[in-house]
């Protein structure tokens, strides 16, 4: 067994102005042994030099440089090199809360669960609090099952928190045969989610903020429309199919509804033949899944689905 408690995986691309705060937030963690694995994904600014400087001072920092291949590939590189007993992910423009590791490690050890999930703050680039990713209080400080996880994932205000991999502490054993889907450059976490949750038996939910997400203009998830954004409804339909197979029909319907809304939006935004073709494939998949779920829908959802099928061909 490794004498390192936590492997912190930080993919980074052109974040020379943010990476220092990110790394410092890890180095300030107390009462925990950890290694920091920084994967420089082909940065063209001074990011790599900044990271190498930290590594020259701190022996528990490892910097790996690779050609630009995207977030999924960079995280996989980190997983391939991790030796800690537990795994956590940190985006390079975000930072940890004080004592986050101690709180998560204590919870995962004491409760013998596979994953600990914490809350997060959303912070602007000038340091203002924009929002809080909270877990409903009736679920905090308790162990939940995969079914309850999916129930929380289907709640609008909780969906993001129960989809992203950051802000969580994972047992390393979960990742033994599990990796992010290479080549995906948007919705990487959602694509992985069904397989990830299938590898877990139990989760513990903290009522502490352990993570700070920086909301910046440069964030890919908030940029203008591009072809990769079609991964969002695609990954949700994949999750929906997984939920149907496990007879979680109520949660599958909620995931399906979100995907349908995104498909309608993408239809309006798509402006070339290739994109329209892919959106049409997503529409066809959503109709197939809607047919599978129809008998489990309430009247309102059934009407929505029938209208979707009838109106969509004219919705351009």
From TrEMBL:
Domain Glycosyltransferase 2-like: 7-135
Gene Ontology terms for molecular function: glycosyltransferase activity
Taxonomy, superkingdom: Bacteria
Keyword tags: Glycosyltransferase, Plasmid, Transferase
Key word DNA-binding present: no
Protein name: Glycosyl transferase family 2
Phylogenetic lineage: Bacteria, Bacillati, Bacillota, Clostridia, Lachnospirales
């Amino acid at each position: 067994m490794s004498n390192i408690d936590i492997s912190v995986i930080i993919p980074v691309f052109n974040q020379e102005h943010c990476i220092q705060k990110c790394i410092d937030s890890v180095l300030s963690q107390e009462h925990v042994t950890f290694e920091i694995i920084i994967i420089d994904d082909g940065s063209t600014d001074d990011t790599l030099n900044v990271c190498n400087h930290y590594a020259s001072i701190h022996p528990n920092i490892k910097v790996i440089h690779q050609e630009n291949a995207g977030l999924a590939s960079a995280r996989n590189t980190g997983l391939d090199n991790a030796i800690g007993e537990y795994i956590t992910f940190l985006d390079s423009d975000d930072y940890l809360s004080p004592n986050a590791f101690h709180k998560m490690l204590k919870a995962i050890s004491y409760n013998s669960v596979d994953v600990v999930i914490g809350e997060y703050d959303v912070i602007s680039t000038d340091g203002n609090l924009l929002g809080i990713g909270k877990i409903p209080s009736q679920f905090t400080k308790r162990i939940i099952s995969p079914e309850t996880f999916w129930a929380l994932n289907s709640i609008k205000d909780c969906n993001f928190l129960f989809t992203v991999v950051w802000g969580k502490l994972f047992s390393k054993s979960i990742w033994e045969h599990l990796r992010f889907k290479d080549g995906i450059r948007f919705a990487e976490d959602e694509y992985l989610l069904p397989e990830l949750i299938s590898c877990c038996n139990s989760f513990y939910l903290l009522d502490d903020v352990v993570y700070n997400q920086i909301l910046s203009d440069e964030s890919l998830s908030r940029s203008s429309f591009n072809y990769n954004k079609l991964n969002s409804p695609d990954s949700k339909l994949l999750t929906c199919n997984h939920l149907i197979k496990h007879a979680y029909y109520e949660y599958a319907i909620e995931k399906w509804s979100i995907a349908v809304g995104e498909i309608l939006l993408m239809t309006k935004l798509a402006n070339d033949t290739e994109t329209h073709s892919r959106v049409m494939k997503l529409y066809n998949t959503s109709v197939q899944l809607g047919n599978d779920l129809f008998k489990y829908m309430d009247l309102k959802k059934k009407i929505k689905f029938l209208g979707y099928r009838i109106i969509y061909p004219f919705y351009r």
